[in-house]
Description:
Helix content: 40-55%
Oligomer: single chain
Bound molecules: pyridoxal-5'-phosphate
Shape: globular
Radius of gyration: 17 Å
Number of strands: 8
Amino acid sequence: MNTITQRYNDVTARIEAAAMKSNRSAADVTLVAVSKTFTAGDIEPALKLGHRVFGENRVQESQGKWPALKQAYTDTCLHLIGPLQTNKVREAVALFDAIETLDREKLARTLAKEIQSAGNSPELFIQVNTGNEPQKAGILPDDADAFLKLCTGTYDLTVTGMMCIPPFDEDPVAHFRLLAEIAERNGLAKLSMGMSGDFETAIELGATHVRVGSAIFGSRTQQV
Ligand SMILES: *Cc1c(COP(=O)(O)O)cnc(C)c1O
């Protein structure tokens, strides 16, 4: 067994244990394997194991490796988990099956236009800046309800979930709880929260999608 196989099996076992601990089914938790900075050659072992859901944070980097991989493994589901600039929306809508970082009106407007003309509609998650961090992307928690209404009402977008990246140096529990609360009061079923260091906690607090990179692929040499 190579290391990716071992790490992957370890992560899926931990997901099952965390789900069981909170009386949930592991089938209700989607593992988004975050392959940013890793090459197609690094990713292929995970595809060979049968894994199909991956996350990337940059459109351009993804365009370099995913079209060929998606052609080889046609049921792959690719999530964009990094900030999306409006000038990259066309490429993003063409390549990604889910966009987790919808966080501002201009992006909602541009996505709506592109989805209509491309006839291709990625699943959408609203990113919430649960820590109110000035430098971080995401809609502020207090603005989340109104922003969702704007996306669905004014722009006719279908939004299915919410996503957060808690502040690096804080206990994530309060952030996961806050995201779950915002999603619940708005009737959204999907919650993308939890990374390599805290995905079990996120599952216990209701995550339906965990975004796990280094625990599967190893540590990243590039800073992203
Ligand atoms: C890189 C990244 C992850 C994965 O981080 P790990 O700590 O390697 O699991 C998850 N979510 C987002 C938004 C990321 O950019």
